[in-house]
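Progress report, Aim 2. The chain analyzed during this reporting quarter is listed below.
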Amino acid sequence: MASPQYHNKRRIIQIATLLLLALIPALGLFRIDLSNASFAILDSRIWWSNFPFVLGLALMSATLPLIIYMTIGTVWCGWACPQNLLSEWADNLTYRLLGKLASVEVGGKGLKVAASKNKAVNWAILVFAFLGASMILALIPFLFFFSFTEVLSFFSLASAAKLSTFMQRLYYFTVFLIFIDIAVVRYFLCDYGCLYRIGQKMFKNQDALRVTYDASRSDDCNKCNYCATPCITGIEPTHINTYDTCINCGECIDACNRLHDKTNTTGLLDFQLGEGGANATWREKIGSVFAHFNWLIGGAFMLGAVMMAWGIYTQQQIPEKESPEQQLKERSLVNSCNKECEPRQLLCKNGNMSDCYRAAACKCSCFLQRDPDNESSGQWQQCVRQNNSKVDSRGAALGSGR
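Predicted structure tokens for the chain:
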């Protein structure tokens, strides 16, 4: 029997997409810096005040989904969307632990569990698997705003900063949301809460990539329903309409091909792009799609790309603001050294300049002792030398005056 034509390829692309979403911020390819009001792209910093870049990004973000709807249809949903990947994984794990017909999601037909598998150990494995996945996946959104080291510092036992406490609570809340999504929501979110799916129903056209059925060979089908069994969205693959919830996953095509492979015939289902039909070349199929393409939307997308490029090219370098963690560290350092050198500062208020020089040298020396690796350590060393030198010079001048 031939191997599936689409299933394994689709699974590889789904996993690769999820890994890419994690690696892009983790490797510093793209990150949103809230403390500096900017985007960090590779080694460049693009400020939110960069109007051409921000407007171009908004145009591209708004038009790219529309272009996908009109060309490759719902391929994103079936081949790349993490929500579908997690829902499929959760379904398969549920079937394995609770029965082939098990249903626990909100959009299902009620709680269904096989009597032979309705055991505490099976439920425990299922819950801990979902919880473990949720704890890992919940880190990804934070990586788009903080470096991996900063994210880990939020959960350090030695950290007691208010920001860390807030981030811990936000992380646990994110874990809770993802756990509920994996455990009971699943495809319910796709059907009723996904903006991409709503847009797809509004803008998908007949020329976009879609699953088609060879009705001329309907006698070979005999209503076996073999293709409908693996359908993720629960529709009838032999009667797919433009606005159906088909996600172009190709599972029905693989199923039909497996069945007909036994008789050395081809399946009745296939992907089709454009109007040319099965006998058209790929050039004709693509040409058919672009012949009906909305070039107003395409032009807006290209304008957005040009504006983003112009924004990057004309970006002015603005000094970066210190992160909240660094600001908190510096305030703590200043407060600590002020307290240590307070006796000398009180003497300075009496009008003796030597005491003022000693107070200044005391603070710089304290900074050096408590934070020797600071980038300002060179300035602090110079501060200590200069103020001690002034104390010595003043003492020598007073001695010679006597």
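The chain has three domains: 7-33+74-193, 201-293, 324-397. The chain is about 60% helix and 5% strand. These observations will guide the mutagenesis work planned for the next reporting period.
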